[in-house]
Design brief:
Strands 2-1-3-4 form a four-stranded mixed sheet, with helices on both faces. It contains four helices and four strands. A hairpin with a 2-residue loop joins β3 and β4.
């Protein structure tokens, strides 16, 4: 007689939670939230303006975006001009500035699992959802 076997299939868990890096003063950011609401998609909000991100957190999002800090920073902000006038900032300088002055972070950023997108325009998030 053969023993009864129990087989367990273990699959990797893919995070389907959506996080929106949101600045309430930004129209594009509010538009992204409205788009998610209209689609009935559940999400959490990362209020990075009130709760400043750490360099490690920024690096994690950059990895998900697949870009460098120079591609995520808002270069037209006055604080950027003040900090980096006549300078070519390196990655660490940009990350430090983005932590200290979160208005330098381009928004909104939609994060899902190990991917993220800067939703400008808001339709860019559709491929991630």
């Amino acid at each position: 007689m053969f023993g009864s076997g129990i087989y367990i299939l273990i699959l990797p868990i893919m995070s389907t939670e959506i996080t929106v890096w949101h600045n309430n003063r930004c129209g594009k950011s509010r538009e992204a939230l409205k788009r998610l609401d209209e689609k009935g998609i559940t999400y959490s909000v990362r209020n990075y303006m009130q709760d400043k991100p750490s360099p490690a957190e920024l690096k994690g999002v950059l990895a998900k975006l697949g870009i460098k800090a120079e591609d995520w920073v808002r270069k037209k902000e006055s604080v950027y001009a003040e900090l980096f006038k006549n300078k070519e900032p390196d990655e660490n300088s940009l990350l430090k500035a983005m932590c200290e002055y979160p208005q330098l972070i381009e928004r909104p950023v939609i994060v899902k699992g190990n991917k993220a997108v800067i939703a400008r325009p808001a339709e860019r998030m559709d491929g991630l959802l």
